[in-house]
Amino acid sequence: MSDTAKQPGNGDGAGAGAGKAPARQRTRFPGISSRAYEHPADRSALVALRKINGFDLVLKQLSGMLSERSVRLAFLAGSVRTSDQQFRRLHEICREAAYILDMPSVPELYVTLDPQPNAMAIGMDKPFIVVTTGLVELLDDDEMRTVVGHEMGHILSGHAVYRTMLLILTNLAAGLSGIPLGTLGIQALIAGLREWFRKSELSCDRAGLLVGQDPEVSMRALMKIAGGSQLHEMSTDEFLAQAAEYDAATDVRDSVLKLMNVIGRSHPFPVVRVAQLKRWADGPDFAEIMAGDYPRRDDDRDASVRTEAKASADAYRESVRQTADPLFGLLRDFAGGAADAGSKLRDKFAGFAAGSSDGAGSAGPASDGSGAAAPGSAEGGTSGPATPDAADDGESRPGTA
């Protein structure tokens, strides 16, 4: 069961709850696995990578190529590390988030001067979190808690580890750009990585919600990142209406433009993130986790790659089914028409085979004894115009968009 009463000790380890208890009592999730909140597409990739023995060791060896120690020293020298004496409230929020997600340790949190609102989790051996002054000035404490929880989600999922590895491989592949068609392969790799990055952001929006435990606050934070600090001029309901309008579009040309706009992005657009987060918050998964029903880290090694891959395909199929986008509507119609045509073709051949078998034997009631079909019937088929099958149930729709 989830824990709302247990108080942590004074250390930073998992046994100590990795921090102090939140000022406002929030549900804690002892031993929670990142699989509890990960988007299916993100989770299936991570489960497959975790299955490879020695994979993390290889990553840590590769990480030396990017000089993680140098990056940390740069922030240590040029930014402000939170503590009981510096940005104390942010330090408390960081410890609270680590406590709620039962992190193995409390990551260091740095504040760096930058008017652009942003946050990031960096590192492999000892990941740390960086937030900009623009973000600190933009969000209140509750909203900041969801952002810190988001970055904790990246660390708990191992995104920093795998992103670092993929960045290394991408840089190495860039050296092959002089080879004919080499650029095409690199661009395909980058496109695939960005799609995974975008799904990992949706995963960690969920982690932020688990830390803040207030969907309205999580959506409000994303809205302010999109529109600034004048909250009195904004409405989450209207922002969700924007999300619905963006999803629906009005023209297939808009659908194509949306796909082109997102190709170069590492993060989904704010309206997409808000809509996805609300859908998850209103669904059964969030309620089950809050009630203490969630996967544990101890069972991560037993997770099935096949099961997670199927869940990923199902998620893409469901997203295609739910969207009001006209392009995906055409894909649904095409898939439904293809399935309908395939079903009719199958029935036609099945009926033909059955009719041939009947003609080779004794004549039935519909035969004149010569094996010819009786009037009004086709070769094992039916007369008259074909009638459409029942509406597609979604099982035959394409699994990816």
UniProtKB/TrEMBL annotation:
Domain (Peptidase M48) ranges: 85-280
Cofactor note: Binds 1 zinc ion per subunit.
Record's protein name: M48 family metallopeptidase
CDD domains, sorted: M48_Ste24p_like
Sorted UniProt keywords: Cell membrane, Hydrolase, Membrane, Metal-binding, Metalloprotease, Protease, Transmembrane, Transmembrane helix, Zinc
Cofactor(s) the protein needs: Zn(2+)
Biased composition regions of type Low complexity, renumbered to the chain: 354-377
Positions with biased composition (Basic and acidic residues): 294-318
Stretch list, region Disordered: 1-33, 291-318, 354-401
Annotated InterPro entries: HtpX_protease, Peptidase_M48
Similarity remark: Belongs to the peptidase M48 family.
